[in-house]
């Protein structure tokens, strides 16, 4: 199992792997699309080291009714919602809960858009090689929502890049994208913080500062 000092180190190592695995010509039309908050720190390092544009795609995890930590889906800034249907069925998640939680998360997303993004700067992804980044992939719900959004913009290719990914999510996501670049897919995966020495919460100010670099 790989341990990262922090998200900055993880981003640098991921940038090195992307540079080694992706043809130089592919990087000419590439941009990094990071998922706040932690994914922006990882994506910021990739953007800096590979000299690529950086943007963010705001998503919100949808928690299970009995557990804030367990994601049963995700909603993106465009309104796209992705559910982990098998998990929802296993937990008997009701339609009413789904409707209410999505409404709540969309309100939160609207606020984050105001915090992180300019209305004058919509996503420009058409014919681009889009590298979606996060600080790790557990259930995969957030990444799947991001992929669904990006696909609507007619990109040239979709690549997912993450330092660590749960094996349960790995194969499912591979089928949705052109490439999935990662550093570790451990057998035992409880939560992302087990792979980082420092996994402190990233504040909004740091996200905005990274996006403006």
Automatic annotation (TrEMBL):
Keywords assigned by UniProt, alphabetized: Glycosyltransferase, Transferase
GO terms of molecular function: glycosyltransferase activity
Phosphoribosyltransferase domain segment(s): 13-174
Stored InterPro entries: PRTase-like, PRTase_dom
Species this protein is from: Candidatus Shapirobacteria bacterium CG09_land_8_20_14_0_10_39_12
Top-level taxon of origin: Bacteria
Name of the protein in question: Phosphoribosyltransferase
Listed CDD domains: PRTases_typeI (cd06223)
């Amino acid at each position: 199992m790989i341990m990262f000092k922090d998200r900055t180190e993880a981003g640098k190592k991921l940038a090195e792997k992307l540079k080694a695995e992706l043809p130089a010509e592919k990087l000419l039309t590439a941009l990094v699309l990071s998922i706040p908050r932690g994914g922006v720190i990882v994506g910021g390092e990739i953007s800096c080291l590979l000299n690529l544009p950086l943007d963010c795609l705001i998503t919100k995890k949808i928690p299970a009714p009995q557990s804030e930590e367990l994601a049963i889906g995700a909603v993106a800034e465009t309104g796209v919602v992705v559910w982990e249907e098998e998990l929802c069925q296993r937990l008997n998640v009701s339609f009413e809960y789904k409707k209410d939680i999505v409404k709540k998360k969309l309100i939160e997303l609207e606020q984050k858009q105001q915090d992180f993004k300019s209305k004058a700067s919509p996503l420009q992804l058409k014919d681009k090689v889009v590298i979606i980044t996060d600080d790790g992939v557990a259930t995969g719900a957030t990444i799947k929502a991001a992929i669904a959004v990006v696909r609507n913009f007619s990109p040239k290719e979709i690549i997912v890049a993450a330092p660590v990914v749960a094996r349960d999510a790995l194969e499912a996501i591979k089928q949705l994208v052109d490439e999935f670049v990662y550093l570790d897919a451990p057998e035992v995966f409880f939560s992302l913080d087990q792979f980082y020495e420092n996994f402190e919460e990233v504040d909004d100010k740091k996200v905005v500062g990274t996006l403006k670099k």
